[in-house]
Fold each of these.
Amino acid sequence: MAQDVETQASVAIEDVLQRKEATWWQGLLSSQPFWVTVAVLAIAVTMGFVNSNFLSTGNFFNITRNFSFIAVMAVGMTTVIITGGIDLSVGSILGMVAMVSAVTISNGFPMEVAVAAGILTSLAVGFVNGVLIAYVRLNPFIVTLGMLSIARSLTLVLTGATPVTLRRVGEEADRFRNLLAGDPFGVAMPVWVLIALTAIVAFLLRYSAWGRYVYAIGGNEQAARLNGVPVDQVKVSVYMLSGLTAGFSGLLVLAWAGSALSNFGQTWELRVIASTVIGGANLMGGVGSAYGGVIGAALIEVIRNSLLLAGVNTFWQGTFVGLFILFAVLLERVRSRG
Amino acid sequence: MPLLELRKISKNFGAIRALDEVDLHIEPGQVLGLMGDNGAGKSTMVKIMAGNFPPTSGSIVLNDQEVHFHRPVEARQKGVEVVYQDLALCDNLTAAANVFLGRELKRRFGPLRILDYSAMFARAGKLFGELKSETRPRDLVRQMSGGQRQAVAIARARLTDSRIVLMDEPTAAISVRQVAEVLDLIRRLRDQNIAVLLISHRMPDVFAVADRVMVMRRGRTVADKNIVDSSPEEVTGLITGAIEAA
């Protein structure tokens, strides 16, 4: 009997000893963004040896700018996905914002007005999404699917599908393009926007009560509500943020392309969602990080670019990207079991 | 003087009368076991006390003052804490984050006020210490045992100067060893002069920790007596209706 008690006690002590506090490097090794970063670096180094063009300044500039358009949206999308929602309307918001701003500026308004019009449009669409999801309690997938259709259609209605150019329409349009398509200190403007946005959102997710609530809602919405978390307001805010980041991308794409086409951003929502998933966000909610979405977008772009430079038929790109998405989800499954 | 008193509380859901003029009172440092079969009205009682919905008629008196709760947060502000049956925890957050959910501690950071991680970890650690639980503030709730999860939910209820803790079936879905842990937690709350209302189906648990037992059947109180004056057999009879009232 006494022996029994002793055995039990020693087992209990071993239990305790085995459960060491997780150190920072254990956290790092079990984090998906870390491994995706390793993958991006590994591909970059390998390609650097194989093809000297890959690490050339020109190509680097290309890659970083191309992926920024997607990555900026992935930052906003990540916050939505952490709450357990989804935003399928970002591609259409991008197209709408680009068109609204292009129309504003080509009608002779100052650049600031055009930017403000674009930003307000994106926030308004995000607000409508958020209210329908949080207060009317409609399913996020359905609401944003509807918005995908509505925003794209309104973009077409706005100009009757004619492109709106910013070339040779005046000083304000040039100022707009010089600012948003410029490259201060040798880095493309979209990259600067991306860096600032990622830093701010990462900070908010970690150090603000809002960020804590975003994770709490994704973890257990009912529990968050019972504990006095303003669930509905936070939900509206993430859809507005997602809309806003799509708006940023819309302005940047417009400046880069020099004209607005009504199909801008079409199907980009899928690339954005793929980026966040590769970067470790869980579509069930509760897990994800701003940096994860960015590095996920980087991985997709690096793969695309590498295949291109390696002379692989571009039709194969989708297969590779798709395999990485599946691999990322499998990796997450393995980690959550371990 | 009772800490919390419910007087002639009735609650109708449409044509259904879930509670029919129920009285309930609880003193500081007392554990009251509330028992009854499914549908007897226990959960409705708890939800009224916790502020999930108001009673159809009757009054709630807390510390000699009549109160009206419209939302759970209001009940909490008055010192009524609830440990929900499913514990209302976020698995993806740490123990400390769950304890402070909805009332995070903050510190100044330039012009901003940001989450004060170290203060929250320290305070949560202290609460777990007081509850003599080995739960660690930095661990994710997902990785915890049932008993540790209970400790997190109870530590949350101890965060402010709560005076009464309502516990809805805290031992329903956990192992025998963890049940003992939870019963110990309840005794510690009582020792700190906190009133505990324990809603339970499990006879042994109620007889192990409760000072008083109240039995409900079909929305009415059928017994309210000191635990020493009752027996599991009598309570079983009262719950099923074999004994009309006591």
Amino acid sequence: MSENEQNSPSKDENARNEAIFNSELIPHIDALFNFAIHLTYDEERANDLVQETYMKAWRFIGSFESGTNGKAWLFKILKNAFINEYRKQAKRPTKVDFEDVVKYHDAEEGTGVGYLDLNQDIFQGMLGDEVSRALDSLPVDFRTVVLLCDIEGFTYEEIAKIVDIPIGTVRSRLHRARGMLKGMLEAYASKMGYKN
Amino acid sequence: MRGINHDCNKCEEQISSYLDGAFNEEQERQFFASVNNCPRCAEKFEKEKSFKVFIKKKMPVANASRDLISNIRSRIHQDNFRNE
């Protein structure tokens, strides 16, 4: 038996892994795609990110314990893939963490000439609601915690693990992000019949 | 009427924690005892709750295409085939 054969999963293992993959990981694909599109503003790049996330999850499925939090695991993989994509874009060979990406992204946004801007109009055409526009105008770190908490319903602890920040930072980012959103959306929310 | 020990700033911080499901039963009980004791905080609580519902309800959600799902499945089958 070759070394490759020894390390490869058997047919039974593959069938079991595929069953776990289909029942516990694939059901989160819409949530992942939604997260990816709010990170990238671009359908093609969001598709690539989600595909990369699932391929990585498949390669490491042996380390995934069935019945545990597959959704949080996938979101963490996608967040890391997003960081790696930025590392390639920025051509920076050194270690990059989420905070660096946030700073890089915000600097790009600030100049008004970042490559994300090229796709922003198309993206807003896809999700052209007032709430979406307000959310997507937030810096990526604030946008991320709102998406993870208010849209996906992750706990503070799960968000802290996905984004690699302390729980206190999750709370403070959420507080600031919601303050910014309220500033932009209060009049609209009131018009739509919500209290303000 | 505000209770003797009521702290509006602390109560305000707790509103988000409650709405985000971060409290256990005992913390929830203490939170409601506090928020129901102050009309200003009760009003703030209703506003925050309403805003959270508003964001969740009004946020358009983008769904993955069928092509994306079939591409992933096909790559996995290729991967399995290579390993067999």
